[in-house]
Amino acid sequence: MPRRDGEGWKAVLTPEEIRRALTRISHEILERTHGGEGIVLLGIPTRGVYLARRLAARIGEFEGAPAPVGSLDVTLHRDDLRLRPARALQRTQVPPDGVDGKTVVLVDDVLFSGRTIRAALDALNDLGRPRAVQLAVLVDRGHRELPIRADYVGKNLPTAYREKVRVRLAETDGEDCVLLGPALPGQVGK
Amino acid sequence: MSEEWLVKGAAIVGGEPRDIRLKDGIISEIGTGLAAAGATVLDAAGLIALPGLVDLHTHLREPGREDAETVETGTRAAALGGFTAVHAMANTEPVADTAGVVEQVWRLGDQAGYVDVRPVGAVTVGLGGKQLAELGAMADSAARVRVFSDDGFCVADPLLMRRALEYVKAFDGVIAQHAQEPRLTEGAQLNEGEVASRLGLAGWPAAAEEAIIARDCLLAAHVDAALHVCHVSTAGSVEIIRWAKSKGWRVTAEVTPHHLLLTDDLAGDYDTRFKVNPPLRTRGDVEALRHALRDGTIDCVATDHAPHPVEAKETEWAAAANGMTGLETALRVVHKAMVDTGLLDWAGVATRMSIRPAAIGRVSGHGNPLREGAPANLTLYDAAAGETPVDPAAHASKSRNSPFAGLPLPGRVHSTFLRGTATVLDGKVTR
Amino acid sequence: MNRHLISAADLDRDDAIGILDTAEELARAEGRPIRKLPTLRGLTVVNLFYEDSTRTRTSFEAAAKRLSADVINFSAKGSSVAKGESLKDTALTLEAMGADAVVIRHPASGAPRRLTDWVSGRVINAGDGTHEHPTQALLDAFTMRQRLAGGPDRHGRGLDGVRVTIVGDVLHSRVARSNVLLLATLGAQVTLVAPPTLMPYAVDTWPCRAGYDIDAELRKSDVVMMLRVQQERMSAAYFPTVREYRRRYGLDSSRMALLPEHAIVMHPGPMNRGVEIAAEVADSDRSTIVAQVANGVTVRMAVLYLMLGGAAEGSA
Predict the structure, then answer these.
(1) What are chain C's domains?
(2) Which end of chain B has fewer beta carbons closer than 10 Å to its terminal beta carbon, N or C?
(3) What is the model's pLDDT at position C270?
(4) What is the pLDDT of residue C315?
(5) Nearest CB to B316: which of C108, C132, C200?
(6) pLDDT at A190 over 90
(7) What is the spatial distance between Cα C172 and Cα C227, in angstroms, rounded to a whole number?
């Protein structure tokens, strides 16, 4: 875990900017889904889950009732499993009404190659048959390798391929911020 | 016997350097500053001279299992290990239970010419434990068998054992017992203890060996016959033999090099090189065996050299063959286990690896102290050679199942002479 | 985790809990209608069974297939193995087939360990002689955690303080060996109860207690695990008669009544009803015997995923 003030890292989103981005996305979701009718927010672990919960809470503030929210672990559907040691599985938790016929909004922190979302679409397929699937991300850093795009973007962040983007959230890291840092040799940053 | 040698400056059983002249098959002269006088000079400065080693327990596998060893390869290995005489165990195919087979083995040894091969005769027909083999015919044969053993199997029937002990008295024979109570060791795989229990291998209780040794000591005493106990492996066996000897009974015993050095925990990864009968025991047993060898309770070291082809060991533990090669490492192992630990000096080694085994095996011409007039059977050992790892691939034995592979051992057998003829010079067989 | 799973001792506490947690997540997926995951697509798992064990083999097969691995069943019967081919030659054959993992059941203790010398894939011990059966111990631990450490909190937890009594032929039981090691790793207190003839010789060196009095132990057990008694033990004089064994070491309903209220009854199967366990005990609601079978698949999925799902060590 890079330190926030470590060599070469710079903040590209402040806590306030993150808060504003999530508020804006919440509004956009409500607008695009006609008041959040039949939506389910599914966060992709780890940080996507907390972002999804924040979005659901915001929507609740605007609409009076929080949106159904859950988590979707995509590990077993990834196509890059054999590039790293086996990872522990994270919780998949679907709201009681399920996903059939719903508008599922997948939530993740960073959109990069698109492979995680591809895996998420497969994992979602195992859970049921949503009416529509949308994608919300806090940061879109480009370099897509699949024909995938986000419906809701907190910030478009132009990056070099080998640079690293690190999202830190209060729930997991004790603070809100997005950092951009130099890549370690031979590594590709998320 | 046309070879004539002058061995210069060898320390006889570790004593002061002396020159030793080997002529006409005997040690013709021992002194200092001897002149070559036509003899080939061998500079033995720094080497220890031992009487040629005698092994009471060798498996040469011929006839029948020439894929594992032949008399030729096995005796070459023996010479390289410093031996001048070996006893070839009877569990060949066919079993050495007739005059014909023991004479065949004896002749093969004579033809090979590296060491004197003394065949051991089977006690019972086909090692079957039911009927005495023709012990007298083997004794009277050209092989002049004096040691009888069903090694590999125990003569478990107490009445048959009594009869065998009695019967061989007529020709000064000795029964060498493989002490293993068969019912207590059905399916046994490894010393019954912590390691076997963890590995889920059927235990091989020490009591299965000790019970037979105790019984046989009593029988030997009762009929006043000679009992030799093969490959003693437990502290309890040592106690029983010590007690029997204290009574003045005619009981002798041997211990293998591997039981002086190795313990059952080496089998922890199911490495079948460490599968042997009797099994490797515990550290406490090893200590007891070493002290028994020192105080004479155990008379001698015998290799139980048991070559096996690769496929007999490259298998799951239960299916693997019992046994280890040992001729080419025996002296080095004894050096490490007994001399480096201060338990024996080189004179003590000479007693336990040459003089006593020759006496127990009734082998004339071997096991004599190195003095003028004695047969020129001797071994030159470089005790100062540093520790080097054992490399079974370099062994002359046809088989590679050494438990010491990769283990650093001290010393090096430099040369071996059989009746004045060099069989090994500078670590290499002469032909 | 180690490269191979030969013994329960190959797992440290983090490994073991990691497997249980992973199995927990997989069990959730099991509840959903679509039960096939693409995780091990393109990998080959060989079931190499030298003993008949339909339950264990089908459990591994189902686990591998639900993770989309290709499964080759290589059973000793009717194959070259039956014609005397050596384990090594069979191993080389599997190697040529490109086995990424070999699940081996063998009557000889240590055969899986030997196999690791000859294959480059992972080796999973599915029971070797009287040595070990680590995945059985994992599914037993999983079942115990499920039943005794309920609630979402059990994620990340061991079995600390859980009192487990294992009763029966410990000497010949690979299940007992693996359970003792794994349960000790997970913090449980294990007590073995057996006739002295069926207690391993050096049991005092194992990480557990041992005793002969079943009734005393049952009163203070959270789990009692009954081991199968093989009929052939009787002829080898380990005990006089089945009747006497049942009387002294069998679990019937009156003995079950000695157990604390919350305690569960386990059996690794196959059961000898009426010998070590009475039918009414096996079928009671304290019995987890059916759950153990179901949990077997998810636990083996977790093991396969964690051993095969990631990069081989060194290439990460």
Answers:
(1) 8-132+294-308 (3.40.50.1370), 134-288 (3.40.50.1370)
(2) C
(3) 87
(4) 39
(5) C108
(6) no
(7) 10
Residue type, B76: R
What confidence category does residue C119 fall into, taking pLDDT thresholds of 50, 70 and 90?
very high
Q: Which of residues 98-137 of A touch C (CB under 8 A)?
A: 122, 125-127
CB contact under 8 A, A92 and C38: no
Query: What pLDDT, in 10s, does the model give residues B297-330?
Result: 999 999 999 999 999 999 999 999 999 999 999 9
Task: Decide if A82 touches C, using CB distance below 8 A.
Answer: yes
pLDDT (0 to 100) of residue C85: 80
Q: Is B304 noted as a catalytic residue in this protein?
A: yes
Q: A82 versus C140: which is more confidently predicted? A: C140
CATH fold of A16-158: Rossmann fold (3.40.50)
B199 has a chain C CB within 8 A of its CB: yes
Is the Cα torsion angle B275, B234, C181, C291 positive or negative in sign?
A: positive
Chains A and B touch (3+ CB pairs under 8 A): no
**Which domains are present in chain B?**
4-48+374-429 (2.30.40.10), 52-360 (3.20.20.140)
Domain ranges of chain A: 16-158
Q: Average pLDDT of C211-226? A: 96
Using CB atoms, which residue from A73, A76, A88 is nearest to C18? A88
Beta carbon pairs, A and C, within 8 Å: 56
Alpha-carbon span B38 to A100, nearest angstrom: 107
Per-residue CA distances from C120 to B394, C95, C123, C171, C216 (Å):
29, 7, 9, 32, 48
Residue C30 confidence (pLDDT): 64
- Per-chain mean pLDDT for chain C: 91
Closest Cβ opposite residue A81 in set C18, C34, C39: C39
Tens of pLDDT, residues B413-423: 999 999 999 99
Q: Please check whether residue C143 is in contact with residue C136, taking contact to mean a CB–CB distance below 8 angstroms.
A: no
Q: Residues near B264 by Cβ (< 8 Å), separated by ≥ 6? A: B190, B191, B193, B195, B196, B274, B279, B280, B281, B282
- Torsion sign over Cα B235, B236, B240, B246: positive
Coil, helix or strand at residue B304:
coil
User: ipTM of this model?
Assistant: 0.93
